[in-house]
Task: structure prediction
Amino acid sequence: MMAERKSTDRLIDRLPAVRGRYTEAADLSRVTWFKVGGPAEVMFRPVDQDDLAAFLAGKPEGVPVTVLGVGSNLLVRDGGIDGVVIRLGRGFTDITTEGTAVTAGAAALDLNVAIAARAAGIAGLEFLSGIPGLIGGALRMNAGAYGREMTDVTVAATALDASGTLHKLSHADLGFTYRHAAVPAEWIFTGATLQGEAGLADAIQARMDEIQTARAETQPLRTPTGGSTFKNPEGHKAWQLIDAAGCRGLRMGGAQVSELHCNFLINVGGASAADIEALGEEVRRRVFAHSGVTLEWEIKRIGKALPGLHSVGGAA
Result:
């Protein structure tokens, strides 16, 4: 249904007509893995790439735009997010294969891309089955696990700039470095082509099974979390630094450093985003005091802190 423009002071009524859906004051705690966070001023779910491009071209100048995937590597602060939060849906989930290449929309689940590759006898993309997120987010942060990163398999991508113009990007254009792509922050990925190699479905499945077993044994998959919290500093593993600093099991309010994998923060019940962020900062402080190494957040923290809200109690 076409969203009509109205003349009021509310942001939702100043946005351009679209074929997708606008939602005012959308509850983001329902769509993030941590199960915390304030509302989006407006959420927009575009129907397809053309709908998204038209929105970007027609939105009022100065309205901030934030892209939200499945919320797996994200902490939304308790005050929520001003402007428009974009969530890509079905129009961005197609996955096709040709030879040993896989082309996927930005909202395709990493796991589904790995499954499609297996079905087509394409090896080399099994690592995606161990990354909880979407292809767009994997591109943005050069996601990696189990010995491979997006830079190892990505040959091309597409993205819309802030004015809605489509750009076709080569591997060199993406400028991948550790957990980063050098594409302007305001550009929105819409898809990618990944290159694998010929393989046998049984061997591919066996590798995916190994990855899933390793995840289940070493990560708190059944507790609200944001995945790997800190980047591995050069020459170090973040979890080892955290463990050595005595932070395993450290708790602040409803947030805790996982006992199973101490580079994961978890919501053990009733945590606020402020609890989680404050716990992360306390971990960084203790690690630096113990080892002299400064941990850098891997989890993306966005939105506004809620005035007056702070972590409940101290670290224990």
In short: The radius of gyration is 20 Å. The CA atoms of residues 5 and 197 lie 49 Å apart. The helical segments are 49-58, 110-119, 135-140, 171-174, 201-218, 238-244, 273-291. The longest strand covers residues 188-195.
